[in-house]
Amino acid sequence: MNLTVGNGNFATDSRVQLTGTGSLPSAFDVTGLAVASMAAAGTAVAQLCGRLGNLTPAVAVDRALASAWFGLSFRPDGWDLPPVWDSIAGDYPTADGWIRLHTNAPHHRAAALAVLGLPAGAEREHVARAVASRSGVELEDAIVAANGCAAVMHSRQQWLAHPQGAAIAAEPLVHWGPERRVPPFGRHDAGARRVGPRPAVTPARPLAGVRVLDLTRVIAGPVATRFLALYGADVLRIDPPDWIEPGLEPEMTLGKHCARLDVKSPSGLARLEELLAGADIFIHGYRPDALDRLGLSDAVLAGRHPALVNVALDAYGWTGPWAQRRGFDSLVQMSCGIAHAGMEHFGRDLPFPLPVQALDHATGYLTAAAAIDAWRERLDGRVRNARLSLARTAVELMRTGPSLDASDLPAAESFAWEAESTGWGPGQRLPQAVVVDGVPARTSVEARGYGSAVAAWAGG
């Protein structure tokens, strides 16, 4: 799987029908990235349908809706979402440049404040004063060493000269592991290990009954598993006991059963092992060494569960000195030069990121495409692991310039929003941006909070 750039913009396969006009304002072709990554996921669905039936259905992507889905696809009706960002998260001038602090998780906030010598209740102005006298790189290193999350702003040239930038540039967009041979499934078979009947797999419901174990958080991984759920996958999301993302829960839990599990405890790890034994696809957003420390390295998983499709994503890639570093979309944008390029392009005097968290969303749809492609191969007895990263997706985006379609996107009110029930109350969801002919993207599992389900597969 690759993304194609021509004339400074992303180009999609000629077999994908493109509709709609308009672009998100950016120094890069962000709307083109939205279209291309969604087209990749839609094409993977179509090819799986072709494997299950006689014909490969057509795929269409709406440019305006793709741009909208890269923001928020859900809006509440009669109630409000909590803020997405923590009060001190954001960009700050340092003594020698700019740094971004990511403090949405309580322990990341605590780490940043501890390094700055500030109390737990510190306000934004206190943080700004404490940051202003510090060297950006020194502060970044100290916060990362304290298990926090921060990133200084680099230019594109500085990032390419950085050891991590050079390592990322040498990685493929999707890294495929070595192939394993396992017994193939029958033409209409689905998941491998379960009790009782499983839903019928058809070209109209190509992932029906396929069990997806989701150990991802925030945006990229949840986007991938939400997409799989819309085409029939049985998604079980596992979060730690104390993880919270209230501003994103209605957005990212659609179609999923969400449970909590302390996988660092002996009982939690044993339960995770049981869930893996019943899973068909495993998608996780852990840093490269995290599962290794739990005794669940790629090699161990391949030995215990050779038929398991294992797809991983992280922030800063899988090689180089930052391979183990925590990261998020907004931090990667600072590190790799995107925020600096935006600042120059728009003539601003402070970091100017993308209008949406496009690295997260694009990597999510590319992850979904990789998982579906791997599942299609699994049906024929071939199994390969896949790895992706936000930083490697950024390489593709930075090959582009501003969109050649400079027209404005339609207002959100012009879309035919669809009524939806959630665990918090009624709301509305954007119509689908990618359409696979004859294959509806739908789910009967409403969005509900983390920990609203038990850590078990439905049906045993």
UniProtKB/TrEMBL annotation:
UniProt-listed Gene3D superfamilies: Crotonobetainyl-coa:carnitine coa-transferase, domain 1 (3.40.50.10540)
Tree of life domain: Bacteria
InterPro entries referenced in this protein's UniProt entry, alphabetically: CoA-transferase_III, CoA-Trfase_fam_III, CoA-Trfase_III_dom_1_sf
Pfam family, one: CoA_transf_3
GO molecular-function terms, A-Z: transferase activity
SUPFAM superfamilies: CoA-transferase family III (CaiB/BaiF) (SSF89796)
Keywords tagged on the record: Transferase
Name recorded for this polypeptide: Acyl-CoA transferase
